[in-house]
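In this supplementary section we document a worked example of the pipeline. Step one takes a protein sequence of length 308 as its only input; no multiple sequence alignment statistics are reported here. Step two produces a three-dimensional model, which step three serialises into structure tokens for compact storage. The input and output of this example are shown verbatim.
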Amino acid sequence: MDQLAAMRAFVQVVETGSFTRAAALLDMPKATLTKHVQSLEGHLRTRLLNRTTRRVIVTPDGAAYYERALVILADLAELDGSLSSAQAVPRGRLRIDISPSLATRILIPALPEFFARHPDIMLDVGCTDRPVDLLGENVDCVIRVGEIQDPNLIARRIGEMHFVTVAAPSYIARHGMPAHPLELDECHHTLRYFSAQTGRSFPLEFERDGEELVVSGRYQVATNDGNAYVAAGLEGLGIMVSPLFMVEDHVRSGALVPVLTDWSAGEMPVHVVYPPTRHLTSRLRVFVDWTAELFARLDLARRLQSSE
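The serialised model returned by step three reads:
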């Protein structure tokens, strides 16, 4: 029995919850992977997994073995990396997930710089706003906006997302310029963003001199996609509260104009998130460090612009 291969097969089954997905990720026939796990159970003289027609359940012995196996495989990978000159340069495939708006407007335009530093890394970029099962989907890290609620994940704060209130000139020409956020509930239309998972619309939050207001805003259009949200604003369908990075070019061109400028629309943290059981490979480490550097530069540039 190749115990290391069997150990890797077992760990992948636990993390994906499926023999089929584990075999695909390891690029081996399902029958071979099954034989590895069975050989490991025979060697250890205990059942590690209970299989049903619908799912794979880890036994208590399997859970204990999984935790120790993770440490052993991580130590082995680190040992190989420290002794092999071929591993001195970060290389290999990295799977990430990021919202479509952040991908198209921030991450992808900056990738030539990343690859100039790390030409041997391959990035698989998933573009979604949905929660991602990092272990089950074999994703190395995600970039997400907002507070991270799952205490079982490692979240590194890499920046802030600043929000602004804007509208198209055509909308202002038809409805006038609001003077107070409460007017958004009374005589103006807003654009709303809703959760693709829950269908819940997010309220609009404003702050001025310690006064905080939360308004729902009358709306004709709501969407769960950032690009569609901006497109609706450009068409004059309502006043929108948007991340600055999504609309700053349109504000410069005059396609959108600032609204309620004496009220702050707030900010939210941006995190790179990865599971604690995922070995922090050199390729993941340099990617996380680079994204933190990227967002820090963008935030500094915007602060300098606002002070001019």
